[in-house]
Amino acid sequence: MDVFLTKKETLKCSVCNKPIALGEAFVAESEKHKGTCFSCSQYVNATFLKPGNAALTRRSKKHSSYCGVVFVWNRRRKRFERRGQYVEADAIRKAELECAADAKDRALKNEKAAIRRAEQDKVYIAEFSKAIRRFYPNCPKNREVAIAQHACEKHSGRVGRTAKAKEFDKKMIDLAVEAHIRHAETNYDHQFGTGKTKRAIRSDIKPFVISTMRKWGG
Ligand SMILES: [Zn+2]
């Protein structure tokens, strides 16, 4: 039995015989079946669980010996839609406990995942730094770490975080070093908004970037 906030004007309670007004609760298998008003129904002492929490809805239904789903007619969509359910109060309490226990698990899982990600980031940065240092042995001290950190942020969540030094290809390293030199060793970033195109700015600093890469490359 479900609870229909009826769209009909002709329904009557089969127990007390009272007419059921439009939009009032009609408890039956469907609006086409015989049914009762809410006061005469089995749900008169049940607890209403409002909609919006799928896990709570599912679990409280599972724990309750009955479940009366409330349906309201959506005129625009021409269909009944769920608007909560009547179940045993104990069932809701059990379901709430289960959901609370789950929430803790989920929070813990997220926390562990964040720690794992941070560890993977550390490995990634260390390995990428080593690879940069190998190809650019004359790059200033610790600069390889700054470059690797930036690359790690830039590719956050997109790169394989178990990356080994040998998996970083030369092109990837060159691009990271080139971008770093452009931003850290030239006035590239300050030339925007001066009327010059990005292309012109890049073209102007290119010789310096290339010579610096050669110098760092040894
Ligand atoms: Zn009745």
Provide a descriptive summary of the structure in words.
This protein is an alpha+beta fold and 218 residues long. The protein folds into two domains: 2-87, no CATH class; 119-217, no CATH class. 48% of the residues lie in helices and 15% in strands. The chain contains five helices and eight strands, in the order ββββββαββαααα. The protein has helices spanning 54-63, 89-135, 143-154, 170-185, 198-217; strands at 2-5, 11-12, 19-20, 25-28, 36-37, 47-49, 68-74, 79-87. The strands form two sheets. It has a six-stranded mixed β-sheet with strand order 5-4-1-7-8-6. Strands 2-3 form a two-stranded antiparallel ribbon. β7 (68-74) and β8 (79-87) form a beta hairpin. α1 packs across α2 (89-135), α2 packs across α4 and α4 (170-185) crosses α5. The longest helix has 47 residues, at 89-135. The radius of gyration is 33 Å and the shape is elongated. The relative contact order is 0.08. The site of zinc ion has 8 residues, from β5.
Net shape = elongated
Q: SSE order, as H and E?
A: EEEEEEHEEHHHH
How far is the N terminus from the C terminus? 82 Å
Summarize the amount of helix as a percent range.
Answer: 40-55%
- Major beta sheet, specifics? 6 strands, mixed
Low-confidence stretches: 158-162
- Overall pLDDT metric: 90
Q: Count of DSSP E strands?
A: 8
Radius of gyration: 33 Å
Q: What is the percentage of strand-forming residues? A: 15-25%
**Small molecules held by this entry:** zinc ion
What's the number of domains?
Answer: 2
